Amino acid sequence: MEVGFLPMSERRLTVLSGPSGVGKSTVVAELRRAHPEVWLSVSVTTRRPRPGEVNGIHYFFVDGEEFDRLVEAGELLEWAEFAGNRYGTPREPVLKKLAEGVPTLLEIDLEGARQVRGTMPDALLVFLAPPSWEELEKRLRGRGTEPEDVIARRLDAGRIEMAAESEFDLTLVNTSVQEVCRRLIALMTDPQGVTTTTKREV
Ligand SMILES: Nc1ncnc2c1ncn2[C@@H]1O[C@H](COP(=O)(O)OP(=O)(O)OP(=O)(O)O)[C@@H](O)[C@H]1O
Ligand SMILES: Nc1nc2c(ncn2[C@@H]2O[C@H](COP(=O)(O)O)[C@@H](O)[C@H]2O)c(=O)[nH]1
């Protein structure tokens, strides 16, 4: 299935979603290493930092009170609760980068992607899918960052996210990080990138 043409100016905002453990952060890290011209929004979260995560780089780590304040002040473009924590995208930096014409990427969950679809209908929504459900479980467990009860919650959310794949403009299957990055950067920067893309790429 072909995805309709969107002018460059209207599709500089790209959203990358997909089940927990599929490899979104890995893909984004590689994309930013190879293409520093892409700007990644740094989200706010109430989740505790994992070892090695740095405040202001991986997330802005805040408590529930501060998150409430940001929501009430309208400072978040979108926000959602995911597996027991809250996550949101600071609005101002995204609007500023888009106004400057910078290719802008959000790595967010399904609920957040749905909100962006509602408020910024020209954004390109990309679903990152695992090669198989078994491989997704293997990656999530293999990462070793969550206890089993949290993994179970994330897999439950993952089943819901997998069922929503058709809501996205296209799907990239994360078999090869390099290949996904190659397609993603083409979609973000090449005006022909969307027209030549099939709905699901394997
Ligand atoms: N193409 C791939 N092949 C094999 N392993 C991969 C691939 N991409 C990512 N991984 C591994 O899968 C694990 C999960 O990746 P990552 O943390 O990037 O997932 P995520 O989608 O960002 O998860 P979350 O939504 O929970 O933050 C990591 O250990 C990563 O090294
Ligand atoms: N709706 C939003 N979802 C977000 C945001 N930042 C990250 N996320 C998503 O949360 C889950 C879990 O992330 P983790 O770092 O705890 O593994 C994952 O799906 C992220 O994409 C956000 O600003 N808004």
TrEMBL record:
Chemical reaction(s) catalysed: GMP + ATP = GDP + ADP
SUPFAM superfamilies associated with the record: P-loop containing nucleoside triphosphate hydrolases (SSF52540)
A Gene Ontology molecular function term of the record: ATP binding
InterPro entries per the UniProt record, alphabetical: GK/Ca_channel_bsu, Guanylate_kin-like_dom, Guanylate_kinase, Guanylate_kinase_CS, P-loop_NTPase
Annotated keywords: ATP-binding, Cytoplasm, Kinase, Nucleotide-binding, Transferase
EC number from the UniProt entry: 2.7.4.8
Cellular component GO terms held in the UniProt record: cytosol
Residue positions binding ATP: 18-25
Similarity remark: Belongs to the guanylate kinase family.
Role of this protein: Essential for recycling GMP and indirectly, cGMP.
Record-linked PANTHER family: GUANYLATE KINASE, GUANYLATE KINASE-RELATED
The name this protein goes by in its record: Guanylate kinase
Organism: Nonomuraea turkmeniaca
Taxonomic lineage: Bacteria, Bacillati, Actinomycetota, Actinomycetes, Streptosporangiales
Gene of this entry: gmk
